[in-house]
Design a protein that fits this description.
three-stranded mixed sheet, three-stranded antiparallel sheet, 17% strand, 46% helix, 6 strands, binds zinc ion, 6 helices, disordered N terminus, alpha+beta
């Protein structure tokens, strides 16, 4: 099926190296005007800054000065083109709006607002970008599922039913059982 490790080993380094050489990262400067995911305020203070493991981005822990919410941003010097390998083997450029609309339709009628959904899609994109410049639709699907599992279980199940291609009630039941197992032990 897919071979994520070999794909990572091939694409990344040649793309990253020249960018780093011509645009050194200055960890002291920070992008301003980042919107708080909770209240949309734009004033925040940076609590912590560090380079991601692969050196391609700066991860910043921020605290909103309006509501106190803490959140994380990843800053990149330049956006590298992110290529998606589809199940058919075809490739296409990554499109965050597709991820966003996938989440939005799974979250229809659920208590997830547009800001949360768009922020979630951003986080997913950043997470995927750290995995390399070539990713698979499977990686995208799994990243979305991981986030939705924490955010909203109904949206998670709806997305899973489309993504995993459930075709009967038994599949759905199995997934509900797995989900219950994953969340229940804390209560014991
Ligand atoms: Zn806030």
């Amino acid at each position: 099926m897919t071979h994520p490790s070999s794909r990572l080993a091939s694409g990344s380094p040649p793309f990253l190296a020249p960018l780093r050489a011509c645009a050194p990262i200055d960890a002291r400067t920070s992008v301003s005007g980042v919107r708080c995911p909770a209240c949309s305020g734009v004033d925040d203070k940076v609590i912590d800054s560090r380079m991601t493991d692969d050196g391609s981005a700066i991860r910043r822990r921020r605290e909103c000065l309006t509501c106190g919410r803490r959140f994380t941003t990843f800053e990149r010097l330049e956006e590298l083109p992110l290529s998606v390998e589809k199940r058919s083997g075809d490739r296409e450029p990554f499109d965050r709006e597709k991820v966003e609309s996938g989440i939005a339709s799974a979250a229809k009628g659920r208590p997830l607002d547009a800001v949360q959904i768009s922020h979630t899609a951003e986080e997913i994109e950043e997470q995927l970008r750290l995995q390399g410049v070539e990713i698979s639709t499977e990686q995208i699907g799994r990243a979305v599922l991981d986030r939705l599992r924490e955010l909203d279980q109904v949206a998670y199940l709806r997305f899973a039913s489309v993504y995993k291609g459930f075709d009967d009630a038994a599949d759905f039941q199995r997934e509900v059982r797995l989900l219950t197992k994953a969340t229940e032990p804390k209560r014991h």
